[in-house]
Amino acid sequence: MFKPKWWMKNVLSIDEDFIKKNHLRGLILDLDNTLSMHGSPAAEEGVMEWLEEMRRLGIKMRVLSNNTKKRVEPLAKKLGLEYTAFACKPLTVGISRALKKMRLPKNSVALVGDQIFTDIIGGNLKRMPTILVEPFHMEDKPSFKLKRKLESAIFKRDYSKLK
């Protein structure tokens, strides 16, 4: 339930070889701490170029966020991506909506995100491939620190060693 199929440094680590080796045709992408710093109106450095590379490879992509349309829509538009807001991860309703819009079989689409308790559990409940990425930046808010501590305990991950 808690274990991703793959664990990568960040979305920029998902490259052509990985896509081809794993027969992926689509990526459902979490927004905050996966493509952008939490609450930021801009993508992290290198994300725009990475998205262009994925497009060149013919990969369908869609943002999936638990956040509101007000937060998700402006950044998704900047990224040139369709989106599903208020996804209610780890429940699978938002994931199902995103997959339906993408028109791809779930086994050819990986759900990519930085949180075990939302992204990975949601993807695993939907029985689709999951990619856990480390957040670009560690959050300072107590709620995020608590989540990361719980994730570390469950998954034997040490976020304090991230640079």
Description:
The chain is an alpha/beta fold and 163 residues long. It is 37% helix and 15% strand. The protein has one domain (6-138): Rossmann fold, CATH 3.40.50. The longest helix has 14 residues, at 142-155. The protein is globular, with a radius of gyration of 14 Å.
Task: Sum up the structure in keywords.
15% strand; Rossmann fold; single chain; 6 strands; 6 helices; six-stranded parallel sheet; alpha/beta; 37% helix; globular; 163 residues
What's a concise summary of this model?
The protein is an alpha/beta fold.
Topology:
Blueprint: E1 6-8, H1 16-21, E2 26-29, H2 47-56, E3 60-64, H3 69-79, E4 82-84, H4 93-102, E5 109-113, H5 116-125, E6 130-133, H6 142-155
Parallel strand pairs: 1-6, 2-3, 2-5, 3-4, 5-6
Task: Return the domain count.
Answer: 1
Distance between the termini: 27 Å
CATH class: Alpha Beta
Helix fraction?
A: 25-40%
**DSSP strand content:** 5-15%
CATH homology group: HAD superfamily/HAD-like
**Assigned CATH architecture:** 3-Layer(aba) Sandwich
Overall mean pLDDT score?
A: 89
Biggest sheet: strands, sense, closure? 6 strands, parallel
